[in-house]
Design a protein that fits this description.
Bound molecules: pyridoxal-5'-phosphate
Mean pLDDT: 96
Strand content: 15-25%
Helix content: 25-40%
């Protein structure tokens, strides 16, 4: 079923999985074994020789339940292969550490997941990799930043937390003209919205912790792309650094993925409804949702997103004080970090805090960020509750500010 010709809802159920040939089990078993008797001709000892399709040896190289998840995710991204990791951070940092060396240059979106931004600012700098930070919604700026030492361009779209988009096809062309590769963090978009590889990207990064697992009960990450390009990443990031996902976590994500296309449809319908409600509310200053005509890049969203997703960011006229008051008043919407689970989550993301520790933007970039976010945005991960209950919860909390 690998890379099957089927459509996403079918792949989510069947790709990478089948009836177990030994037991006849129709649900994929959790194979917990740490060691396997390898096929006689398998070259399994060095990370550089290992091929996951030629049999298993030791769990850090690969194992059956984990491989089933890799095959399903590869199918959902229309990728030749996929490597899964202990976290989304491990997928991003595993890629960066394998692809970049001292003297190389990376171009990174200045707005992305804070952990990735801090890794680029501090850890990559420590290893002698130079990083230029760009507003990835500005193609002229991306073009200017890419040079002959650039090995990798990294963008996050829609970018956390303001939902600003990057044009994947255009940025892939810019990167390739310079001999560089493009990696896209597609955690917010998910494969239900966007297939970055089909648009020209070389790598897709996911936090499985979010919509893909979808239930808020697993930490995991994934990297999809061409098999030959992923092979050295598997060797370094898994076999050498040991950032592996365990079989039980893989099994939970496989289970979560069965309903992924259905969930994304429902997340989108709820998010669209609530984004429209917020946009017309007198206490709301601004709403960012790629599916709204008022989104500054709605045309690009229509071009590169088949599903506008479950994330909505907004600002209140009363600023941070009003936002904090509102969040305290919510009932079924939980005031906590993270996103992409069945139940709704909401959190205030302060511009000053992000700037100080994670984004460290120059004055011009910070001014542009503030045009969207002001002193901060309320980031709302819209869950699968009844949308009228969610609307009523927002309405009563807004009444209180
Ligand atoms: C959560 C997240 C990550 C990090 O993933 P973990 O699984 O928490 O390590 C990376 N990128 C984005 C966009 C995220 O939302």
């Amino acid at each position: 079923m690998k890379n099957s010709r089927h459509r996403d809802a079918t792949k989510a159920l069947h790709a990478g999985e089948g009836v177990d040939p030994v037991t006849g089990a129709t649900a994929t078993p959790i194979v917990a074994s740490a060691t396997f008797v390898p096929p006689e001709d398998a070259k399994i000892f060095s990370a550089y020789e290992y091929d996951p399709d030629k049999g298993y040896s030791y769990i850090r190289w690969g194992s059956p339940t984990v491989r089933a998840l890799e095959e399903k995710l590869a199918a959902l991204e229309d990728a030749e292969d996929c490597v899964v990791f202990a976290s989304g951070m491990a997928a991003a940092t595993g890629l960066f550490l394998q692809k970049l060396k001292a003297g190389d240059h990376m171009v990174s979106a200045n707005v992305c997941y804070p952990g990735v931004a801090e890794f680029a600012h501090d850890t990559l700098a420590k290893f002698g990799v130079e990083v230029s930070y760009v507003d990835a919604s500005d193609l002229a700026e991306v073009r200017r930043a890419v040079g002959n030492k650039t090995r990798l361009v990294f963008v996050d779209t829609p970018a956390n937390p303001i939902l600003r988009l990057a044009d994947i096809a255009e940025i892939a062309a810019i990167a390739h003209r310079a001999g560089a590769e493009l990696a896209v963090d597609s955690t917010f978009a998910t494969p239900a919205a966007t297939k970055p590889l089909a648009l020209g990207a070389d790598y897709v990064i996911h936090s499985l912790t979010k919509f893909l697992n979808g239930h808020g009960d697993v930490l995991g990450g994934a990297l999809a792309g061409a098999k030959a390009k992923l092979k050295p990443v598997r060797g370094e990031a898994l076999v050498h650094l040991g950032a592996n996902l365990g079989p039980f976590e893989a099994w939970l994500v496989l289970r979560g993925l069965q309903t992924f296309p259905a969930r994304m449809h429902f997340h989108q319908e709820n998010a669209r409804h609530l984004a429209q409600f917020l946009e017309h509310h007198p206490k709301v200053e601004r709403v960012f949702y790629p599916g709204l005509e008022s989104h500054p890049q709605h045309a690009l969203a229509k071009k590169q997103m088949k599903n506008f997703g479950g994330m909505v960011s907004f600002r209140l006229k009363g600023g941070e004080g009003a936002a904090k008051k509102m969040l305290q008043r919510l009932g079924i919407i939980t005031n906590a970090v993270s996103l992409g689970k069945t139940k709704s989550l909401i959190y205030f993301i302060s511009t000053a805090e992000l700037q100080k520790h994670s984004f460290r933007m120059d004055e011009n970039h910070l001014a542009r960020y503030r045009e969207w976010a002001g002193e901060g945005v309320i980031r709302f991960s819209v869950g699968l509750e009844d949308r009228e209950d969610l609307r009523e919860d927002l309405a009563q909390a807004l009444d209180a500010v």
